[in-house]
Amino acid sequence: MARLVMKFGGTSVADLDRIRNVAAHVKREVDAGHQVAVVVSAMAGKTNELVALCRGASALHDAREYDAVVASGEQVTSGLLAITLQAMGIDARSWQGWQLPIVTDGAHGAARIQSIDGSRVIEQMEAGRVAVIAGFQGIGPDGRVSTLGRGGSDTSAVAVAAAVKADRCDIYTDVDGVYTTDPRVVPKARRLDKVSFEEMLEMASLGSKVLQVRSVELAMVHKVRTFVRSSFEDPNNPKTMPNGDPFGTLICDEDEIVEQEVVTGIAYSKDEAQISIRRVPDQPGVAAAVFGPLAEANVNVDMIVQNISADGAETDITFTLPATDYERATAVLNDKKVEIGYKTFEGTTGMCKVSVIGVGMRSHAGVAAQAFKALSDKGINIRAITTSEIKISVLIDEAYTELAVRTLHSAYGLDKA
Amino acid sequence: MARLVMKFGGTSVADLDRIRNVAAHVKREVDAGHQVAVVVSAMAGKTNELVALCRGASALHDAREYDAVVASGEQVTSGLLAITLQAMGIDARSWQGWQLPIVTDGAHGAARIQSIDGSRVIEQMEAGRVAVIAGFQGIGPDGRVSTLGRGGSDTSAVAVAAAVKADRCDIYTDVDGVYTTDPRVVPKARRLDKVSFEEMLEMASLGSKVLQVRSVELAMVHKVRTFVRSSFEDPNNPKTMPNGDPFGTLICDEDEIVEQEVVTGIAYSKDEAQISIRRVPDQPGVAAAVFGPLAEANVNVDMIVQNISADGAETDITFTLPATDYERATAVLNDKKVEIGYKTFEGTTGMCKVSVIGVGMRSHAGVAAQAFKALSDKGINIRAITTSEIKISVLIDEAYTELAVRTLHSAYGLDKA
Predict the structure, then answer these.
(1) B308 at the A interface (CB within 8 A)?
(2) For a designed S-S bond to A154, which of A12, A215, B170, B298 qualifies (C-beta 3.0 to 4.6 A apart)?
């Protein structure tokens, strides 16, 4: 007997047939004797429809009202799934965020979960009843409905799993696991049996869309074993691993992964932009003078490269940002030219960031050099580089994205046999 | 300065344009210096869509889950209207049933309001803020969302008006008031300036669709002056009465109506059925033996006629019921034949109940006789009669409905000049 949290996204609950399919997945686990809580998203398309209504009502809308409107999508799905489970003879009830409660901070529209009272869900589970919880939502300190921002249902599921001390949090989605890279770009991409929290966090941050970044952070902090699997399997006879385990990818503590590869995956994110500020005074406080105003303007600066200056007087600063923030960033720089004291700046959109990720890098030298050589062999120019303990990111022209990803995937031996 | 509750139904909030129109109505009252709370229904069609989803999930669904799903419609409208009002520069916020709270009993799907804490709405109103309240919903003793049954938003509005001691509850709808009868049947039907609570209650019970019966009951008990008016008027320049009052029908205490007519209106309801039970023992307890089992089977018995028997041994009982309950009723009667001890029964659907309503009947003799004569003159056969202090109802063949309504409308001098 295990305690499971099962999460189903929008495409998995898109209509009543899909909801019945979800209920069959839940029934399988209940019949196997597990204690089960379920977290659901809104039916596919519903959230977009509700967001469009809010925008239509006013471009600048009160985030608290937006939350009240948009949270209704998950409310509907949780009720419908509870009804469907009951019709299959499974004791179930729905819970909205405010009922549990899932307490968030007051940042309506992008709230963060502060606490979940797991006692009622545990009580329900122990009584053999399935708790069907509306994802993506909670209640703020003002007593009003809050939402966690897009993709927040993953975060709800992991938070619930932490609160009820679940043995595993199963994220059912439209793919059957986490891959070494995007299989649409590299057909030879391999599904990973296991991936560490740290690696998954980098992958999610760096472009993998399988899980929301915050849900991985939360899973890492609370050590919630999170399992990515497909909701499109036959619920009554899902594919299994050779050893009988469910088929998918387990995101878990590094210690649980016996044979750790040096590199686990290649991630990429397009629509990046790059700005270089030329001949900035090379003195303390200049970085703050540049990035303070950008932060205030909500420009999401990512990679920052500053070289030691040749003459000790002036230097260049290069940074990357999402292409959507580019116009705003250049406006800020023009505005602050005197304060910052730079001579010129230049920039461009149409960039891509490609990242090589693996906890094995910590103990292996030469991993970065291998990437640089592989890209150079294909004539791909590297515009900027950043590294962390477990990843190397390079900025390249967007046109080379697929070539670079395929090249690195092969270079690190990730291709499927 | 007055304190107003404004209620808008589904067709009045059918899309964003209609919601903007509603907001303009609200703005007009706020600009006139009134304190305003608004009660809204779900966007037209939305409740049906949600009900269909619940039914699709399971024909027999948990009423508590049904409520969680269906109540989301009003939640969306209240948020959207708050956003729209804010965009017009009007301070507003939405309230869901559980937030206020609107406390109901536990009869999920058809709950009754038990209490409303008006203090928060009054606080908001006095601070110049419009409270936009989701109609049709509340919170049950189990801490779960409850709904009041179809048309419940009228009831929500009147209950809120009672709780905040509003000067008037304006029900905005797709007609411009209460008419002496259905204008589709009698083009000469007249709009009433005022109608008493008692008369409106009979009209609503007897087929007028303008207001939900329970909302009128509640208005009568709490003496909430309720005003039926059109949401399709130009919000910035609505039609007024010659004396400058708003255009519509005021439902109020009898004392407020100076010139009371003898008959105020003619109501009708089609799809009635009639059942006659022949040769029942004429002894105490026989009515209970008949109507007890029917009540248990949720058969909604309306008119009951039992004559004094000629021989003192056996009698006949005739009653009417909605045609939709007919099959169920005959099944019960067949089942209980021995217990009731009747010889035969016969019944028919395709009946119509036509009612003449007016508080003036109390002090005027011969009102019923006038109806019987008028119908007889047209050759319309009366199958059953019931009367109360302020109404006469006759059961006739459905085919004669329009003729009977027109005939009675003229007979009591209700035709428009």
Answers:
(1) no
(2) A215
Instruction: Consult the annotation and say whether A174 binds a ligand.
Output: yes
Residue A96 forms contact with B (CB below 8 Å): yes
- Nearest beta carbon to residue B86 from set A62, A69, A86: A62
Residues A238, A324 within the same domain? no
Residue with tokens 């007890």: B292
User: ∠ CA B101-A50-B161 to the nearest 5 degrees?
Assistant: 30
pLDDT at A114: 95
Q: What would the two tokens of residue A214 be?
A: 């915050």
Which residue, of A200, A229, A255, is where some domain finishes? A255
| Predicted TM-score of the model (pTM) | 0.86
pLDDT tens-place string over residues B38-58: 999 999 999 999 999 999 999
Contact B99 A144 (CB under 8 A): yes
Q: Any alpha helices (H) in A232-321, and if so which ranges?
A: 286-296
B416 in a structural domain: no
By C-alpha distance, which of A289, A345, A351 is closest to A322? A351
Tens-place pLDDT, residues A376-396? 999 999 988 888 889 999 999
Average pLDDT over residues A336-345: 90
Question: Are B238 and B320 part of one and the same domain?
Answer: no
Position B417 in a domain: no
Q: Extract the annotated binding site of B for ATP.
A: 7-10, 173-174, 179, 184, 209-210
Closest CA to A151 of A83, A222, A220, A215: A215
Domain boundary among B196, B228, B255: B255
Interface test with B, best of A50, A58, A74, A86 (most B CBs within 10 A): A58
CATH number reported for the structural domain that contains residue B205 in this entry: 3.40.1160.10
Residue A209 within a domain: yes
- Sort out which chain B residues have CB atoms less than 8 A from A79's CB and list them: 54, 65-66, 68-69
The total number of structural domains that make up chain A = 2
Of residues A60, A65, A79, nearest to B94 (C-beta): A65
The verdict on A229 and A318 lying in the same domain is no
Does a structural domain hold residue B311?
yes
Q: Does B66 touch chain A (CB under 8 A)?
A: yes
Query: Nearest C-alpha of chain A: how many angstroms from B246?
Result: 28
Classify residue A24 as exposed, middle or buried by CB count within 10 Å of its CB (0-12, 13-18, 19+). middle
A333 and A378 within one domain: yes
Q: Can you tell me the ipTM of this complex?
A: 0.84
CA distance A329 to chain B (A): 29
pLDDT tops 90 at residue A363? no
Which residue in the set A53, A93, A145 is minimally distant from B16, CB to CB? A53
How many C-beta atoms surround the C-beta of residue B344 within 10 A?
A: 9
Rounded CA gap, B384 and B375, in Å? Answer: 13
Q: Tokens 């059961």 sit at which residue? A: B395
Same domain, B204 and B296: no
Query: Which pLDDT does position A147 carry in this prediction?
Result: 96
Domain encompassing residue A351 = 265-411
Among B79, B86, B143, whose Cβ lies nearest the Cβ of A69? B79
Q: Chain A within 8 Å of B53 (Cβ-Cβ)?
A: yes
Cβ–Cβ gap B82/A65 under 8 Å = yes
Which residues does chain B have with pLDDT short of 70?
207
Q: Tell me, yes or no, whether A345 and A305 share the same domain.
A: yes
Cβ contact A87–B58 (<8 Å): yes
**Contact at CB, B94 and A56, closer than 8 angstroms:** no
Distance from CA of B69 to the nearest CA of A (A): 4
Are B23 and B81 in contact by the 8 Å Cβ rule? The answer is yes
Structure confidence at residue B347 (pLDDT): 94
Using the predicted structure, report yes or no on whether residue A399 has a pLDDT greater than 90.
yes
Residues B158 and B84 in one domain: yes
Do A204 and A234 lie in one domain? The reply is yes
| d(C-alpha A138, C-alpha A145), whole Å | 6
Quick check: A385 and A393 in contact, CB under 8 A?
A: yes
